[in-house]
Write a structure and sequence with these properties.
The protein is α/β, with parallel strands linked by helices and 234 residues long. It has a single domain, classed as Spore Coat Polysaccharide Biosynthesis Protein SpsA, Chain A (Alpha-Beta Complex). Helices cover 29% and strands 29% of the residues. Strands 1, 4, 5, 6, 8, 9, 10, 11 and 12 form a nine-stranded mixed β-sheet that branches. The chain binds 1-O-phosphono-alpha-D-glucopyranose.
Length: 234
Amino acid sequence: MKGVVLAGGRGTRLRPMTDVMNKHVLPVYDEPMIFYPVRTLIDNGISEILVISTPEHIGGYIQLLEEEFDADFSYKVQKSPEGIAHAVRLAEDFVDDRFAVVLGDNIVIDDLSASIERFEASDSDCMIFLKEVSDPSRYGVAEVAGDEVVDITEKPAEPETNNAVIGLYLYTDEVFDRIPDLNKSDRGELEITDLNESYLDDGRLTYSVLDGEWFDVGTPDGLLKASRFVAEDA
Ligand code: G1P
């Protein structure tokens, strides 16, 4: 399985730092943020990795990642920040079959092998990962009934459940047929939740509950929490 790390975007919640630098280079304790999602893939046996970032910042990531990791990296530029699903579309030439997408501001510390095996053996085209949180309205939220996801909503004002949809997704290359059908959201982006909802509507979506640790480090609080965790765990 190949992997894609999305490291573009505006980083609005981390301004003013992100006015002058890409957020995925900001430190989580003693390492740049992007090392963590890359390590999530490598630690789970995924060593062919496409990194997508902005025209201004992709060069820095080449330098950082090639020096740090012994993996087979490819790079692609997302010319404008048009959303997560828009960025996934840029992976079309890189992907051949099933693949993982991880958001560059998500830290996922877990053994994902059982979930990956289950996805590979299934006839589902999309697997999302859920984690119970206390503040679900900041995230995509999923409602589950037994083995099935019955609803996904992006940042609901009044969430029905505490299940956040974390920034880690497994797809098949069939995803590239779906993305062109998406419409931009009110924030002017192709939303990953709309993409995942299309799988839900077609009965092609499955889910896994994350046992391990998860941090969204796209906010100052998230960065602080994750940095503390890493520092104490070191
Ligand atoms: C994105 C997704 C959201 C997901 C979150 C995880 O939100 O749209 O569904 O729960 O990542 O970090 P964003 O950070 O782009 O607002």
